[in-house]
Amino acid sequence: MPRQIPLRFRQVHLDFHTGPWIGDVGRDFDAREFARAFKRAHVDSVTVFAKCHHGHLYYDTDRPERHPGLSRKLDLLGEQVEALHAENIRAPVYISVMCDEYAANTHPEWIALEPDGRRVGRGPLDDGSGWQILDMASPYQEFLFEQTKEVLEKFKPVDGIFFDMCWNQPSVSNFAKAAMERAGLDPAKEVDRNRHAHQVAIAYMKRFYDLVKKSSRDATVFFNGRGVRNEREEQAWQTQMEIEALPTGGWGYMFFPRHVRFARNFPPPTMGMTARFHKSWADFGGLKPYAALEYETSQMIAQGARCSIGDQLHPRGTLDPAAYDLIGRAYERVEAREPWLRDATPVAQVAILQTEDVIGSSGRGRAGGPEEAAVRMLTQLKHQFDVIDRPADFGRYELIVLPDVVQLDDPLAKKLRAYLKAGGSILATGTSGLSADGTELLLPELGIKPHGPSPFTTTYIHFGRELSTDVPPTDHVMYERGVRVTAAGGAKALARVVEPYFDRSWRHFSSHFQTPPDKPSRFAAAVRNGRAGYIAFPIFTAFGKHGSGSFRLLVRNLLDRLLPDPLLRVAAPTGAESSVTRQGRRTIVHVLHYSPERRAEKLDLIEDVVPLFDFPMSLKLDRAPKRVYTAPDETPVEFEYLAGRVNLRVPELRGHAMIVFEA
Q1: DSSP string for residues in 3-39
Q2: Using an 8 Å Cβ cutoff, are 120 and 111 in contact?
Q3: Boundaries of CATH 3.40.50.880 in the chain?
Q4: CATH fold of 399-562, please?
């Protein structure tokens, strides 16, 4: 396991992908002003460039890849590192891996190939919106190794190396095919191509990690593009996990919270990475609203992560003053809160079990789907939860959620039974705990008898009395196909399925949309069997697709019975987020309320912060705190301690509040 190296909280990731057609690279660069601009903006670490996606180098070297527009008199990287160190600012170094236009153009045989022979990535006449992708099974890996070795020698000891564009890349180049055959793999099979791509990536990660550590023992090493979900396997070669998640750049506002809740369970520290751009990377002249950057950095620190804000240096070597006014405002807030962030660890009562096996994949996981929807719903319900994989310690949690499509094998079923026997609770939905076709029960503790998939694409849910809190008295439509089940043994059906007259088709239909409900069936929509709960629909997938509040109420009211004493209760709007961290004798509750809005065709934007006032909060604690206050101003908050809970009213929330409970 890599030795843990403390990460700073206020990083800038400074892109510098500069095409060879720009001839005045670094012309206006002033090293002293460069470093002071970061210091004024409260930045304490800057990732600076040795090599960009164009394949060019930005330091003093005799290698032909040195950028042709960079003056021979200017060692741009060297002067950046020296100036930043003079201001006590870290300067890890960036090296592009599989994106290298120079290498691709001079050695086209190194480019990865699709099974049909097409090159991976940008085509010969594309406009530059993509990149040519190199094959790490080719001699390109040796080319990159020599470049990296030179950087390490010239800047020894480096603060760190950030290797970018490092996903698993299948290829059928001559080099890749030969390597697969040597490994006993068949290049004609997709599964073998993917397996080989993973093997290549793991091998070069270990090789380059060892190279860096041999040169600079205390350097951080990170391979970007691997994805968080492979971290259990790959943490041996990652000193930290940086979660690239620029919301307006295609990641959206759920990517970071979904993945940080998994990454934070492992020893390497985590960092969130957004950017100052209105849209995506290299959006020159694009500044996001301050409220958005405040939200993104607040979300990072609330989840126990450090912050990284991306920017791109102008080719002439000057920073955008407006961008650093924006970054400085956000980082001044973070700096003021650092005394309550250092060594603070998130606390979780609930776990969401991952829905897919990702070993051998790039690890990023699918966008959307039941896992992301479960993260969204439990966030809205203010539960404190992690996302976990199968080898995790289930005993750390009071309740585990199996969202929609978790397939059980014998070891997992045995582990879940032991967890229930030890006092844990389970909520399973859809085909989780059943065979994939919904006909066979694999976890009898759910207390159900399956009868196969429903013949109806759309049905209705009738809430029973025990689950009816806040639920309008009607039959609530369920837009996704469920499983027909009945309660077994001593289990109790808490909601019923109401089936329609018929399934809508060209043969028969009624009105504009789904067929109306006919009458209650004998099938259960929700069942409770002691500490096990089951919902007969892919409720999280349905919530992610359709957003119906009745789906959230069904889960909420069932969870209230499975977990009657939640760690935190916050009577705030569903859009408010909460997290709990522990720092020595302190327990810190973060509450965030920012509202992304669809203000452009494909962009969710945050421009305004709508304050909340005087809302109740209740935190489960073993003993009464000595004092409760808001951070960083340390204004006291009145509270009462009753039956193991601290009850108070949060006086004001403007975007992000931190309530500190000090023992």
Answers
A1: PP-PPPSEEEEEE----TT---BTTT--HHHHHHHHH
A2: yes
A3: 399-562
A4: Rossmann fold (3.40.50)
Measured between alpha carbons, how far is residue 9 from residues 38, 75, 335, 582 in Å? 14, 28, 8, 17
Which amino acid makes up residue 173?
A: S
Contact 509, 501 (CB under 8 A): no
The closest alpha carbon to 263, from 388, 142, 164, belongs to 388
Query: CA-to-CA distance for 150 and 358, rounded, in angstroms?
Result: 35
Please give the Cα distance from 612 to 296 (Å, whole number): 19
Shortest CA distance to 102 belongs to which of 93, 111, 90, 91? 111
Model confidence over 440-499: pLDDT tens digits?
A: 999 999 999 999 999 999 999 999 999 999 999 999 999 999 999 999 989 999 999 999
Cβ neighbours of 332 (radius 10 Å) = 12
Q: Are strands 476-478 and 459-463 parallel, antiparallel or unpaired?
A: antiparallel
Residue spans of alpha helices (H) in 288-320: 290-302
Phi, psi of 166 (to 5 degrees): -125, 30
Read off the amino acid at residue 395: G
Please say whether the beta carbons of 117 and 64 come within 8 A.
no
* Tens digits of residue pLDDT in 361-407: 444 445 678 999 999 999 999 999 999 999 999 999 999 999 999 99
Q: Which two tokens stand for residue 74?
A: 């200017």
Q: For the domain made up of 568-662, give the CATH fold.
A: Immunoglobulin-like (2.60.40)
Q: How far apart are CA 166 and CA 221, in angstroms?
A: 13
**pLDDT of 311 higher than 50:** yes
* Predicted TM-score (pTM) of this structure: 0.95
Q: What is the DSSP letter of 110?
A: G
Which CATH architecture is the domain 12-27+49-74+94-225 placed in? Alpha-Beta Barrel (3.20)
CB 135 within 8 A of CB 100: no
How many whole angstroms separate alpha carbon 292 and alpha carbon 296?
Answer: 6
All residues at 6 or more sequence positions from 574 whose CB lies less than 8 Å from its CB, including other chains = 380, 552
How far is Cα 390 from Cα 367, in angstroms, rounded to an integer? 20
Phi and psi (nearest 5°) for 186? -105, 110
The pLDDT of residue 1 is 57
Nearby residues of 285 by Cβ (< 8 Å), 6 or more positions away: none
